[in-house]
Amino acid sequence: MVHKRAVITGASGQDGFYLAQLLAAKGYRLDLVSRQVPSAYPRAQDVAWHRLDVAEEGALEDLLTRARPDEVYNLAGVSRPVESWAIPLEALSVNAAVPLRILDVVRTKLPGCRVYQASSSEIFGNATGESQDEATPIQPESPYAVAKAGAHWLMGAYRVKHGVFACSGILFNHESPRRGISYATQKIATAAALISLGAADGGLTDEVGRPLLVEGRVALGNIEVTRDFGFAGDYVRAMWLMLQAERPGDYVIGTGETHSIREVCEVAFAHVGLDWRDHVVVDPSLIRSVDSRRTRADATRARTVLGWAPTVSFEALIRMMVEVNLKRFRGERAAARPLLALGGFHH
Length: 347
What we know:
There is one protein chain. This protein is an alpha/beta fold. It folds into two domains: 5-175 and 230-253, Rossmann fold (3-Layer(aba) Sandwich); 184-227 and 258-292 and 312-334, UDP-galactose 4-epimerase, domain 1, CATH 3.90.25.10. It is 38% helix and 16% strand. The protein has helices at residues 14-25, 59-67, 81-84, 88-109, 143-162, 184-196, 232-244, 261-271, 300-306, 314-334, and strands spanning 5-9, 29-34, 47-51, 71-74, 114-120, 165-171, 174-175, 213-214, 217-220, 226-227, 230-231, 251-253, 259-260, 280-282. A seven-stranded parallel β-sheet has the order 3-2-1-4-5-6-12, sandwiched between helices. Strands 8-9-14 form a three-stranded mixed β-sheet, covered by helices on one side. The longest helix is centred in the first third of the chain and has 22 residues, at 88-109. The two termini are 33 Å apart. The relative contact order is 0.15.
């Protein structure tokens, strides 16, 4: 049996974890790339870890030339729009220049290799329509989104000019128990678990460096912001399907449903028998000055062309995240070890 070979950049992050699991189950030989090799990941005969900075000149090019993969999944990047304002040059370098380098290596040295680029619904900015699809105008509003938009356009340009099989997955919010605590869904799920166990803050801090919990309450920004939330494990399946299609293209990936941060709170705290209103406070200092108010994916093309559809509901996703936190904190309490945050940024 001939096994395909794939390179995954940003492999230590949430999406990299689920994608590596999926491809390993399908018999791929994997080259996983990240700045840090996580100790918790399983090792396997057909899995090789490469510790490197993808933004370093020549590093990724050398790896791709040696590995000669059938597929490249570029998940590396500065992963939060708000963070990109503090490091705009790095956001542009990693989120736009790295995809360009991958495309050029594939064009010149790896004919037949297929490329997946992790795009984002953030490229649409504060879209005004009821939903967003592949034809929605691109109007980025942060350095992160500008860089993602540039990479998205590069995939299309290399398809047209050089015939590269390159796809962009325009992913809407996708969450999982492996999300970093700086994301609202994980912040809420973690807070609900800790409060239900009678814990203080587990030694955890929020996105601005303050204790996660103060007197049994967690501080959030605008809880009326709505998003299209899905499960990351579903979304990596869409990534794989894009590279198995007959023709390359770009695809919006999302559930088609919208839910507010308030609804995340309702589901998370109800799962542990608590009323969220007793444990959530709105802090105006956490409200972003630039923030799209509403997102909803129209994934019709992914459904009809790829046969993709999400399998995990919004409610099941949030309950899953709370439940994993409950198990983690109970286990760490039993072992009398400090509580540790899940992974954060990666590239």
